[in-house]
Amino acid sequence: MQISLTAPRIEGTGPLTSKVAIVLESPSSEEMRSGLGLAGEQGRLFNRLLKHSNLTRKDVYITHLVKQSLPYNDWTRLGEVGLDREEIKEDLEIELSKLKDLEIVIPLGNQGLKALTGRWGITKWRGSVLKCPTLPKIKVIPTLHPSYVMKGQYKETSLMMFDFNKVGKALKNELDIVERTFKINPTFEECCELLDRFNKAPVVALDIETDMGANFIKCVGFADSRDFAGCIPFYEGGRAVWTEEQESFLWQRVRDILTNPQVGKVVQNMMFEMSVLYPWVGEINPVLMDTAIAHHCLLSELKKNLGLQTSIYTTEPYFKDEAKDGGWGPQVLYEYNCKDCTVTYEIYQVLEKDLKEEGMYDYFHGYQMPLATLLFRASNFGMKVNIKKVQQYFNKHTQLLNKAQGSLDKEVGYELNANSPKALAKLLYEEMGLPKQFNRITGKSTTNEEALVKLNKAYPNKIFDLILEVRGQRKLISTYLKEFWDEDERCRPNWNVYGTETGRLASSENIYGTGLNMQNIPGSIRDIFVADSGCILVKVDLSQVEARLVAYIAEDPTMMNVFEKGEDIHSKVASMVLDIPLERIGKDSEERKKGKTCVHAANYLIGAGKFGTIIGLPMARARVLLGRYYSLFRLGSWHDKIKAKIKKDRILVTPFGRVRRFFDILGEPLYRSAIAHVPQSTASDHINRGAVRMEGQLPKGAQILLQVHDELVIQCLVKDKDRVIELIKRELSEPIPINGREVVIPVDIGVGYDWKSAGK
Predict the structure, then answer these.
(1) Rounded to 5, what percent of the chain is helix, strand, coil?
(2) Cys-Cys crosslink for 342: which of 66, 223, 380, 598, Cβ 3.0 to 4.6 Å?
């Protein structure tokens, strides 16, 4: 395809006296039609973002790198419009040089970033304050293109808000550019002087660099301000830097700092730092702030990595690729280590201020940081694994898998890989001629579990059940029945305080490749986790906590009455919507499970289609059941109240003071997330706050092992069982203030020598 050089063009627009220039890429079809850069919905978003710089369109000059449309917006086809990148770059520089008062250029997207700075990777470099080599007096502050966030990345709008706010500060000469000084490659005597200095500081930021497997520590860095850091090397080129005696001495000095109660420690991702350093220094104390957790408290919907935090809270350009593997020497690594420390210190200072301004200072320091420390201790202690029981389950489920796979292959007529979307799509949509199912989020055809359930309802066939059985058995074996324990036969998961937007905990495999996601372990195999000799496990569950919280948050009198009378809401709902006498619904019955699903679906505005898929009923029937629920419990006013609040300011605050800002595009998915947030977050905070209060009161030898959803597991000596139970009852009876009421959540407590029996 050849485009004429005389094709329609969009020239730069705006006053030549502008202090700010916006550089776009190539005109979209909508821009070509309107003759205006950033037209339509993208333009409206851009106008809103400009307000964060105290600017309007009238204040800025807007231009495109390429003034006419590219074929399919494909930048590899520049030659078809008679241009190359160097010509584009030169033309842009000439155009911008005509703006005599120009101070800041904002490239929107990768192409402008590349043309002005030579850098690539807009998601990394956005928010950085950069220089243009050929326009040295100009600040370049790149950000995302509105089209990017409009294509499903709407949460990233918040990052653009921060970037435009930075532009506003630059215009007022309020950007705080920090000159940093690093001490690297110190002599032994200089190492000692540095460590003495850091041991006298009120606060230090800490960072370590390890080999890829975290098997040994290359260096330890400290910063006692945002402008000074020192790096203590230990390994260089795979060899020790010091003699054995010198290394031992330096590690003792490092230990002195990390265990000195008068020196507050600040880290990014404390679980990693503490896990790696524990064999060398023991537990770090006190940790004043994990910047990732503090950032999560303020902006839970955004990523938690240091690179992103740096772009929001500092003026430091992106640097996280500086020490990537390949071609760099120790000096680069040491400078990188020091930069990590000083940037972390600077972020800490900003976050302390922001936490106070948002009213979350006490919440963070009084609860979130103690919880993180508690979870490190739980992980470090670990939970005993019954290896023999794991092997028994492995053999059992391998047999079940082989049986299901054999039956599936017989039905299909050939060996089928049930985990292959491509193979399943071929079977279902080509060979069987079934209608394609589509993912609601991506819009692409899918063979996921929801699709299989829908197809099975419409076109009953044992193949579907066999596929799901094969998938389920394979996942169970590969995820939970592999070797996940350490040499001492203990499971040590990595716990993550900021793993979810609601504040629920997340767990995963640790940095050494052991541990598990403890949240999703099936109840049927939980007896693989056992108490230590002479000990017993005490398990506590919050009774119907989310439904109970919804009742009081929504202030529905009928629902509150159910709980105040001590009734089981899941059984009651099952009886009502399924037309089954209450006395026929058992505690573990399928009917009660459907009732429980109905409660959560209706409370959180899950649609009839998804609800029907979950409980295995047609949509029409599912809609009837939801209608019956809403006729009994009138939650509409609460749902409407949450929607109105999100539309107004996108902020919700829980009874415990957790603040969440919602950045996603307005619509039903966002409303459902917002409606579920307060009950789920409050439930999580309630049990975790109780755990924090309990930890210091536990008898000697007792240890909190894990917190999973609405349950807590504690190990103690058999003789201390009753004492621990009383402690649990007292601390988890702490009332939750909701709408002027003091709501107490009942607890169910069980004991046993393994996790499964403790739950009975």
Answers:
(1) 50, 15, 35
(2) 223
